[in-house]
């Protein structure tokens, strides 16, 4: 790898602390502010993802803690993961579940401060040509794993022969960890997007949840404007410093902003243009609030009762649940689509578990992953506890049919939202992803702002495409 490319990856590993399980605690009726803290970094750090603002020496100073795999027992595995309130409880649940078949089994969980520590550990090990500093397994962000496997193929072991029924897992989720026709990861969480609505506000304005389900975005804009005119409340908000609306809305159409990993699909993409028009129209008529920061998005627009709707990955649920007075007033459904007449499905955020080259017990690692997160006999025990203790929702279809998942949630007026989310996740379309996902997101955010301020939409789309092409070309030099 050329020195420039390596320094860019090292900079990325140091600065990025984005979502992975999208840290948040959200049992059926509880919530914490962990989601806000972890999601903030995704929104604010993406612009720095490929800037050459760090040196190899600086990256070394920030190296993540190392694992001592050589000292592990025969029934022990080590794993790097982050978020004591979200991912760690899920791993502890999996450890306990696997002890049913291996009572001596121990999972040595080495807690990292964030996803960037794991990315950095892999980067530094690859730069040194020595993977002995890595644990047996690492938790890794979905949007980054394909680049890391491509850049450092010797850092990983595939789990193709783990005995996992991949059809029992959400196809979109699995697509991230399927690289070169091989399966590398076992999914941990479910990033399926939800559209949550204040049903009391809808009813006050003469609407029901059915009226906003399976509709077109044009019809949604009509309803949203009516709600705003009657109540002063917007129907939707988003952190515009890290705006994921275009990505989710386009995925609900089964479309991507990319033709392949390095070819943007903006110019001439009528669906993309329409989505930008919807967002701008909604922002201009008060139906959509484009917040200036993550805290403004969560604290003011959602928890400050400025919106009657929230659309994001399901990890946003704990943020919604912070306002106890609104218990029983919310319900979730799917996304609108451009043409309507069908329900829209999308996903936003998530992580999976990967076996590293340093794992000397790959059969144990694969057996553990298959039995728990991979949908094996321990999946229900794993995910029931992961949901109750940390708010982690499964992408495993069979595990999502448990009694725990089927239980109604009081905050959402008795709706069995977790079972519904797993069902929604099974319909999320697989679309083209790119290593430059976050770079483009930043440019699209700027595009929206410029169009909202009166600039020509076609010119702004052209400018965004030319800029991302320039950035991609620069990264390859």
Report what the structure shows:
- This protein is of the alpha+beta class and 477 residues long.
- The protein folds into 2 domains: 3-191 and 351-401, D-Maltodextrin-Binding Protein, domain 2 (3-Layer(aba) Sandwich), CATH 3.40.190.10; 193-346 and 431-475, 3-Layer(aba) Sandwich (D-Maltodextrin-Binding Protein, domain 2).
- It is 42% helix and 13% strand.
- It is built from 19 helices and 15 strands.
- The strands form 5 sheets. Strands 1, 2, 3, 4, 7 and 15 form a 6-stranded mixed β-sheet that branches. Strands 13-8-14 form a 3-stranded antiparallel β-sheet.
- A hairpin with a 2-residue loop joins β10 and β11 (263-264).
- α11 (270-284) packs across α18.
- The model is unreliable at 1-62 (pLDDT under 50).
Largest sheet: 6 strands, mixed
Any idea what the radius of gyration is?
Answer: 22 Å
- The average pLDDT score comes to 88
What is the count of DSSP helices, taking H or I runs of 4+ residues?
A: 19
């Amino acid at each position: 790898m050329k020195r420039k490319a390596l320094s860019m990856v090292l900079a990325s590993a140091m600065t990025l602390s984005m979502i992975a399980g999208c840290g948040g605690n959200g049992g059926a009726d509880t919530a914490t502010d962990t989601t806000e803290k972890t999601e903030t970094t995704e929104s604010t750090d993406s612009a720095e993802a490929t800037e050459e603002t760090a040196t190899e020496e600086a990256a070394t100073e920030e190296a993540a803690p190392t694992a001592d795999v050589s000292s592990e027992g025969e029934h022990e595995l080590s794993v790097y993961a982050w978020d004591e309130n979200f991912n760690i409880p899920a791993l502890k649940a999996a450890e306990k579940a696997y002890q049913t078949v291996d009572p001596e089994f121990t999972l040595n969980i080495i807690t990292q401060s964030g996803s960037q520590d794991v990315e950095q550990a892999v980067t530094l090990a690859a730069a040194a040509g020595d993977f002995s500093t890595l644990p047996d397994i690492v938790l890794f962000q979905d949007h980054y794993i394909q680049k890391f496997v491509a850049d450092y193929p010797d850092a990983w072991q595939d789990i193709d022969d783990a005995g996992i029924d991949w059809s029992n897992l959400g196809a979109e989720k699995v697509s991230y960890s399927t690289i070169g026709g091989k399966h590398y990861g076992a999914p941990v969480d479910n990033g399926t997007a939800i559209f949550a609505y204040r049903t009391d506000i809808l009813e006050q304005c003469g609407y029901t949840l059915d009226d906003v389900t399976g509709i077109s975005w044009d019809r949604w804009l009509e309803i949203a404007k009516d709600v705003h005119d009657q109540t002063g409340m917007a129907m939707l908000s988003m952190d515009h410093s890290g705006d994921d609306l275009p990505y989710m809305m386009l995925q609900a159409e089964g479309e991507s902003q990319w033709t392949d990993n390095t070819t943007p699909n903006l110019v001439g993409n009528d669906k993309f243009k329409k989505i930008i028009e919807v967002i701008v129209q909604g922002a201009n008529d008060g139906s959509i609030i484009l917040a200036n920061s993550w805290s403004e998005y969560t604290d003011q627009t959602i928890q400050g009762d400025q919106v009657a709707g929230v659309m994001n990955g399901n990890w946003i649920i704990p943020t919604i649940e912070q306002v106890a007075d609104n218990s029983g007033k919310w319900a979730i459904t799917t996304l609108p689509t451009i043409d309507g007449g069908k329900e829209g499905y999308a996903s936003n955020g998530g992580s999976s578990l990967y076996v590293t080259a340093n794992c000397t017990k790959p059969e144990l690692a694969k057996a553990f992953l298959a039995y728990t997160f991979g949908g094996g006999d321990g999946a229900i025990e794993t995910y029931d506890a992961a949901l109750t203790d940390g708010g982690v929702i499964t992408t495993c279809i069979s595990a999502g049919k448990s009694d725990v998942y089927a239980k109604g949630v009081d905050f959402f007026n008795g709706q069995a939202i977790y079972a519904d989310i797993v069902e929604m996740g099974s319909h999320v379309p697989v679309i083209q992803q790119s290593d430059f996902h976050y770079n483009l997101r930043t440019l699209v955010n700027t595009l929206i702002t410029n169009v909202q301020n009166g600039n020509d939409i076609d010119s702004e789309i052209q400018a965004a495409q030319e800029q991302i092409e320039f950035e991609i070309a620069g990264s390859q030099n």
